[in-house]
C-alpha cells in the first residue's frame, strides 16, 4: 500500500491507498514538538490499527507546509519502513506547468490539490481549500497552474477578533440560525460564517471573470470546513475532503 501524509499548519492527515482507492485515513493535530521517534510510534500504531505491518507499505509520499516537520516525517518513513519518502516540492515531477513568477513559492498542498482536481475533470478548475488559511487556486483548460489567492482562514479570523478586542468572547465556529444576530455570540458567528462565505463566493466569481475561461470552471472545495460552507452555496460543485491525499498519490506515481 501507499502511505500519503499531508502536513498542514493545524492538522496532519494520513492516508493509505491500495491502487486508486483510499482505504484508510486519519486526521491528527500537527505538533512540531514531537520527535521522529514519537511520530514513528504514532504512525506505526495507525498502520497496526488498519491490520497492516511495515512490510505492507511499498512507498511514502509527503506534502508539507511545515518545514520543521518535513524532515521528521521523512525520517519516520526511514525508521518504520526503510523507505525514502517522496517529499512534494521543487524538482519533483508533477506534469503541471506552474505559471508563478517563482514556482517554488507555491505551497505543495496547493499543487497536490490542483493535480487531483484537474485529473478528475480535465478542464478548467478553481479549488478552495478551507485550511488554516483559505486558499484559492485556478487551473486552465490545458492543465496549467495559473495562480491564486490566500486569505486568513475563519479560525484565524475568530482568534484575531477574540485576542484584539477587550469585550468580545471566543465563539464556536458554526452556522448561526440567522444572519442578523440577537446576541453578541450569534452576531460574531454570523459575521464569521456568512462573512467568510461571501469572501468565498465573491473570490470565485472574480477569478472566473478575470480569467475568462472558455467554459465555466468546476469548483472544488476541500479542507476541514468544506462541507459546512458547501451546504450554503451553489457556487461549489464538488466537495472532496481527501483532495490533497489524492494529489500526493498521483504525484508519487508520476515520480515512481
Summarize the structure.
The strands form 2 sheets. A 5-stranded mixed β-sheet has the order 3-2-1-4-5, with helices on both faces. The chain has a 5-stranded mixed β-sheet with strand order 8-7-6-9-10, sandwiched between helices.
Structural account:
By secondary structure, this protein is an alpha/beta fold. It has 2 domains: 2-87, Nucleotidyltransferase, domain 5, CATH 3.30.420.40; 103-241, Nucleotidyltransferase, domain 5 (2-Layer Sandwich). Helices cover 39% and strands 23% of the residues. It contains 7 helices and 10 strands. The chain has helices spanning 36-49, 67-81, 108-121, 154-164, 184-211, 226-230, 243-255; strands spanning 2-7, 11-18, 21-29, 59-64, 86-87, 125-130, 133-139, 145-152, 218-223, 238-239. The strands form 2 sheets. Strands 3-2-1-4-5 form a 5-stranded mixed beta sheet, sandwiched between helices. Strands 8-7-6-9-10 form a 5-stranded mixed beta sheet, sandwiched between helices. Strand 7 (133-139) and strand 8 form a beta hairpin. Helix 1 crosses helix 2 (67-81) and helix 3 packs across helix 7. The model has no long low-confidence stretch (mean pLDDT 95).
Amino acid at each position: 500500500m501507499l502511505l500519503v501524509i499531508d502536513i498542514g499548519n493545524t492538522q496532519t492527515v494520513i492516508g493509505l491507498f491500495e491502487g486508486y482507492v483510499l482505504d484508510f485515513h486519519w486526521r491528527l493535530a500537527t505538533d512540531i514538538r514531537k520527535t521522529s521517534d514519537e511520530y514513528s510510534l504514532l504512525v506505526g500504531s495507525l498502520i497496526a490499527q488498519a491490520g497492516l505491518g511495515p512490510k505492507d507499505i511499498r512507498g511514502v509520499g509527503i506534502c508539507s507546509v511545515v518545514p520543521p516537520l518535513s524532515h521528521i516525517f521523512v525520517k519516520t518513513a526511514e525508521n518504520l519502513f526503510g523507505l525514502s519518502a517522496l517529499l512534494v516540492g521543487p524538482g519533483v515531477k508533477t506534469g503541471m506547468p506552474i505559471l508563478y513568477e517563482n514556482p517554488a513559492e507555491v505551497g505543495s498542498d496547493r499543487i497536490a490539490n490542483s493535480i487531483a482536481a484537474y485529473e478528475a475533470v480535465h478542464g478548467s478548475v478553481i479549488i478552495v481549500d478551507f485550511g488554516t488559511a483559505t486558499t484559492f487556486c485556478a487551473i486552465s483548460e490545458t492543465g496549467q497552474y495559473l495562480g491564486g489567492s490566500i486569505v486568513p482562514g475563519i479560525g484565524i479570523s475568530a482568534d484575531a477578533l477574540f485576542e484584539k478586542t477587550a469585550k468580545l468572547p471566543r465563539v464556536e465556529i458554526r452556522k448561526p440560525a440567522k444572519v442578523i444576530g440577537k446576541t453578541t455570540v450569534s452576531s460574531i458567528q454570523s459575521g464569521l460564517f456568512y462573512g467568510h462565505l461571501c469572501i468565498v463566493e465573491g473570490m470565485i466569481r472574480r477569478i472566473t471573470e478575470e480569467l475568462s475561461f472558455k467554459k465555466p470552471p468546476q469548483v472544488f472545495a476541500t479542507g476541514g470546513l468544506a462541507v459546512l460552507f458547501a451546504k450554503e452555496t451553489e457556487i461549489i460543485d464538488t466537495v472532496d475532503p481527501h483532495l490533497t491525499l489524492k494529489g500526493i498519490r498521483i504525484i508519487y506515481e508520476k515520480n515512481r
